[in-house]
Amino acid sequence: MKLVLFFLRILLLFPSFSFSIQTNYTSIFSFGDSYIDTGNLVILYGGLTATPGVLIAKPPYGMTFFGRPNGRASDGRLAIDFIAEALGLPILPPSLALNTSFRQGVNFAVGGATALDREFFVDKGFMAVSPFNISLSVQLGWFDALKPSLCSSPQECKEYLAESLFIVGELGWNDYGIMLLAGKSVDEVGSHVTEIIGNICAATERLIDGGAKTVVVFGIPPFGCAAASLVLFANQTGGEHEPDTGCLKDLNLLSREHNAQLRQALARLQGRHPAAAGGVRVIYADFYAPIIDFAVAPGRYGFDATGGALRACCGSGGGRYNFGLAAQCGMPGVSACADPSKYVDWDGVHLTEAANRRIADGWLRGSYAHPPILRSTAD
């Protein structure tokens, strides 16, 4: 199976508050796609020893930190891993793992997941959709089914979930990617932004209604900056590149539109659940701005100044972006660059551990989330 996933930006500023909010979390519950999947996709395919068609189950995935493939679409840790580490919590186990304790958190994210339900794509005959039913609504159903094993009464659940951090990870990338791979124009794809945002925000509100007090919602990365996008969609989008980043202009406009609508919808959601009334905090995690920053000035962030932002580290596709469908990371004979820490793009779509670390730090302490996750009061 070829994973279909891509990238985005825009700052979200919520109203300021002057009181303390929960920041000492006892567990994390996360939902999303391959940007934060810690092993569910590989488990669905039968595990690391039985996944001939799943490239992330093959070397050199996991080479930097784990020393072997581990179900993550990167050379090492993901942003979710760094968030857990910063909170003093264990790395999140995938929800499909057996004989595992989920008391300190669990990850429901699955590579290939969409914000829209799978039926939307199947009914329209899209071929790139995942063979598994793993959309955001399905992941929420998995969480509901798990709750009785985590807390035994409504009051206990309320107290337990209030001390938990909820993450609605990057969603929408696969929805747009599936449509683009089917030959749809950027305008046609963009006509579904509002529907996709509606599903993301409905899921967020469902978590809040169920007891969540802090929900971090990711935007999408700049779709036009991924090496895979630059190779596969240049002709489909007209091929105009942004002068400052080198990314595809039309696809980045799609990402910005998604993020702008998400920002507005989350602000309305926060308004319906005032922090002053119940301590609910909705945090927008900007996934677009950091990657744009890396593309504009890679050397400033420790990446290779000539090709570290847009060129894939792992692949044998050659050319400017080192990406090709016949020579993808994980395929036989395909190798990785000597030093992944100098690259932003790991495999044409996903990020290196180095990029994930910088982005996570910006969400935890810096300017890429509003307010930062580790700040008890908003600016």
TrEMBL record:
Under the heading InterPro entries, the entry gives:
GDSL, SGNH_hydro_sf, SGNH_plant_lipase-like
Gene Ontology terms, MF aspect: hydrolase activity
SUPFAM superfamilies under this entry?
A: SGNH hydrolase
- Which positions make up the signal peptide? 1-20
- What are the UniProt keywords, alphabetically? Glycoprotein, Hydrolase, Signal
In the record, the note on similarity to other proteins reads: Belongs to the 'GDSL' lipolytic enzyme family.
Protein name as it appears in the record: GDSL esterase/lipase
The species this protein was found in? Urochloa decumbens
